Amino acid sequence: MAILLKIKAVFFLLLLTFTQVSFANDFYPLEDGSLWKYKDSNNKTIVKKAVREEKIGYYPSVLLEVSEGLKLLSSEHIGVTNEGVFRFALDGKRFDQGALILKDKPMVGDKWPITLTLDSGKFITEIKVSEEEAIVPFGKFKCLVTTAISKDEKGIEYQLKNYHAQNIGVVKVTIEKAGRIYYELELLEFKLGGNKTSDPKSIEKK
Description:
This protein is mostly beta strands.
């Protein structure tokens, strides 16, 4: 059980990763106060919020917090370079080098390795980009999908898929365990910074 909880925590921290410092990335339309509300497969409401801009070492970044009700589940610092979107810290722990989450101007067929050193050990995988349609409570979207595959100590395979919609961010997440759905998140609501609620009908679903 402890191993499964660690694996789930790693995937959970990978899945909600979208922001920018310049606010110029099409797949990361983020301003201070922006908020994403999700429903998970346990019928719980999960909220991610862009709290403020902070500098991690030499890297300008944005602090993101993920919560369920009043309970803080995780926090991370995400920034954008000319290479793409990077995670620079996780729950206050800085990475020696940022972990590339999404390339700049991602295209179907892109792939790259990602390595995270956590308390539970080193996590190594490869991220691949594909294209799929996602239907969630917030709307229907044509998405770029990042897929990461890893195995636990018993050799059981886990697959994480993030569905990135243009001008919104991640609208859906699935985690598969041994080929079966293990955990899901679907977007219920998206608010831009400044408490402006985004109407899915007004967002171009490319």
